[in-house]
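Lay summary. Proteins are chains of building blocks that fold into shapes, and those shapes determine what they do. In this project we predict the shape from the chain. Here is one chain we studied, written as its sequence of building blocks.
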Amino acid sequence: MSTGHQSLDAQTDALTAAGVDAVRIYSDKLTGTSTKEQRAGLAAVLDYAREGDTIVVVGIDRLGRNAAEVMLTIRDLGERGIILRSLREGIDTSNATGRMVAGVLASLAELELELGRERRTASRAARKARNLPIGRPRVLTPDQIALAERMRVSGEPVPVIAETMGVSRATLYRTLAEKG
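And here is the predicted shape, written in a compact code that computers can read:
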């Protein structure tokens, strides 16, 4: 699972050298913004694997786009009884040491996710305590919203108001609904 053709060839060679049947190699060609859901090869191998199967990867980073996603995938494989072998890191969850390393990595991922949640909650609370806005900034100022409401009351159609304000109709409808 990689982006460049040469890199994909090198990974394929490493997997076949490790004994993986070439017809059982799954791959993805990704952009920098691809998500796990857009990775058909990864999704296919995770769907295909059954308890007792072994998934061999060149590196554990092939299992997700960030550390948390990789570790959650490792934890999921362990819970499903699927063995993971990573050639680069030397992880093999068929033995106690490999399971311990994978468990530590999965625990670190959970910690990372929990700390992120705590930071976001603390940030929201601090912004709320200071009467600062939470979330994305408003597209329209309060004065612009008041003008849009006056235009609407005077019979202007929403598409004309939206064009005048420089926003989409959906944004204008949502803004007017929030005020009403």
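What the prediction tells us: The longest strand covers residues 54-57.
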